[in-house]
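Fold this: S100 calcium binding protein W
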Amino acid sequence: MARLDQVITNIVDVFLEYSEDEGKKRQLNKEELKKVLEQEIQSPELKGHINADDIEEAMEMMDKNHDGEVNFREFCRCVSVLAKCYYHKKTGKGCKKGKGKEAECASED
């Protein structure tokens, strides 16, 4: 399988695996989201941008429709923000705070 194929299928598989634990199916509640962040993000570069210990803030950032759960679309936004932050870190460019409550990427000056 090509690398991009793997990335796409992994994102879907991770979401489905954790969203089936409890609560609404195909939605991540706070506990499920916390498990995803703690178990599936190990890189120090990424772990610093979404802190599983501060789950309220992460949940607020991702839950754009304010229903108390994260759907797949909201989860994909989070993954996209993390990917952008990692890209900026790899290329040496800073990432500024986005609209609303987007994640902030620290500038590596």
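The CA atoms of residues 22 and 32 lie 8 Å apart. The two ends are 37 Å apart (CA to CA).
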